[in-house]
């Protein structure tokens, strides 16, 4: 049983997972970690869901899923529709359903559940899956950092976070503490105070059909920012 849910909310959230899986204490399917191998990250690009096409060369591309919720819900409603396309990518992200402080905690829980459920399902169908991690205030941490195996590659976005870096960095550091990621893929501008091992992709317009999410320096550059001594 998932804590704090009404009968309606439990019905809304729960859905059987196709294939082998484990659940965390929240009832979220756990996305297995992907190990980081630096040699593989010499020329990995990135593109958005709206630009994904089977006609393109996708085997050196990471597919990001930052988009409006109503578009991401199409994936929830038809989770296997694009499975063949997703399998053609080097890796795919989980959908970035909305998480923000004003949301009801059960809506946040449901959005995280959908993201983890989809990620685990696609993982079970052979895709390499990187969990997209978002957070709000500290009372969301037990939920938003759930359903992810420690020590793997994760994706975050800094879009819209420049106006409240204190909240962002508090959640970022808690994410690192709980998930100990081997690589953090940052979509957007780096924020001062972030430490760890990164790949940083900039955005041009995450929600434009014509937009291609451009790569900084033209290729993926792995770099580290160490904590001040």
Automatic annotation (TrEMBL):
InterPro entries: DUF4417. It comes from the Bacteria. Pfam families: DUF4417. This is DUF4417 domain-containing protein.
């Amino acid at each position: 049983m998932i804590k704090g849910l009404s009968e309606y909310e439990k019905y809304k959230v729960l859905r059987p997972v196709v294939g082998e899986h484990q659940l965390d204490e929240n009832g979220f399917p756990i996305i297995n970690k992907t190990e980081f191998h630096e040699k593989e990250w010499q020329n990995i690009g990135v593109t958005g869901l709206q630009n994904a096409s089977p006609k393109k060369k996708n085997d050196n591309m990471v597919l990001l899923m930052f988009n409006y919720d109503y578009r991401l819900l199409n994936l929830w409603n038809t989770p296997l529709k694009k499975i063949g396309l997703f399998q053609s990518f080097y890796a795919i992200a989980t959908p970035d359903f909305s998480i923000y402080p004003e949301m009801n905690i059960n809506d946040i829980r449901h959005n995280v559940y959908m993201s983890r459920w989809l990620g685990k399902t696609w993982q079970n169908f052979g895709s390499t899956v990187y969990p997209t991690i978002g957070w709000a205030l500290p009372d969301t941490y037990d939920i938003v950092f759930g359903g992810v195996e420690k020590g793997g590659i994760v994706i975050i976005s800094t879009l819209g976070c420049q106006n409240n870096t204190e909240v962002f960095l508090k959640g970022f550091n808690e994410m690192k503490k709980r998930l100990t990621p081997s690589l953090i893929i940052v979509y957007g501008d780096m924020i001062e105070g972030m430490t760890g091992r990164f790949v940083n992709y900039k955005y041009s317009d995450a929600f434009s059909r014509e937009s291609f999410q451009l790569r900084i320096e033209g290729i993926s550059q792995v770099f580290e920012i160490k904590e001040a001594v």
